[in-house]
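Lab notebook, bench 4. Still working through the backlog of constructs that have no structural model yet. Next entry is a single chain of 390 residues. Request: give me the structure tokens for it.
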Amino acid sequence: MNKLLVANRGEIAVRIFQTASDLGYQTVAVYPEDDAHSLHVTIADEAVMLPGTGAAAYLDIEQVVAAAKQSGATMIHPGMASSANLQHSPQLRDSRPHALSSPLRQLQTLATKPAARPALETGVPLLPGTNEDTSLEAALAFWDEHPDQGMMIKAISGGGGRGMRIIEAREDIEKQYERCRSEANMAFGNDAVYVELLVRRARHIEVQVIGDGTGKVIHLWERDCSAQRQNQKVIEIAPSPNLPELTRAALLAASVDLAASASYRGLGTFEFLVDADDPEKFYFIEANARLQVEHTVTEVITGLDLVAAQIAVAEGKTLADLDLTKPVPESGLPSRPASIWKHPARKAASSQPAAPLPSLNHRPGLASAPTPSAMPVIAPQPATIHCWPN
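Model written out:
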């Protein structure tokens, strides 16, 4: 019996358990004592208590792996967290449990935010910034090299807008630097930060991709997450409204090319800033080699269950096996294995021709499978999902 442990809690653990159960997996929750009555513990087939309390218990990789071995789990899903630490665990050097993640080499390149910067050789534009854990002295020196242009301090292991500060004046650097490090350490167990130039009027666009590790990668369109409050994304729109088509095409092609160059395996999000005052200018800022909370927005416009697709790729299936070698057709209802479909009604319709759904996925003229760098882009009508912070 295949058994999947989710090394996380809350909504994302519940979300993964639902799909895993549909795929025939037994599910295992982990929890510290203060989460004993949480929903993810209740709905899992079994649960293993972790020493400690709060988020720190889930961040202790060795005890999570020990819980997986105790339960007999065959696969560990990191939830929305990076799985880089799982891959580094000495206890995972044997074949089981298997960490549902990208290969270690790929994670070393992409899993931390600045790590992808020097590895890029595809000509994708980058903002000037540092490529490693940055000291206060180095942050001050970076400011002096780019006076009065503004600067961002960001957590290397960041996510959800935590461990991030905008710097508009040199005298603010020391105080905000220390706050970023403290916040990052509390949220991620890693206080490392880096810096990059500030784009004062920027749109934040992220591209969802999936690859099978053979060099084959497809995009699943973009999400616009520019509407934010305190660096937290509050509204996601897919596709991005009012984005110039040439810019959209360039973003999608860049994401596919970047992922393909790394023989990317699994789900990933490649994120960019687009200059709102000159929208033909965009900059790659980071790659997230993990499932993100916003994945449900992409599921709405494609009809795919991305968690099911992620598990299928982890099991060794290729995109060809999943009939995911082409861009999603205009109807959003192509013939695909039912196991990767999000909605039962779409599963039933996937084996027969379907009428177009212009309000969700209207991409007229999208017929053939182009090469990644020549990926055509005809945007569907927008579907908006409100993703309020937990």
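Notes after review: The chain has a mean pLDDT of 80. Residues 245-261 form the longest helix (17 residues). Flag for follow-up if needed.
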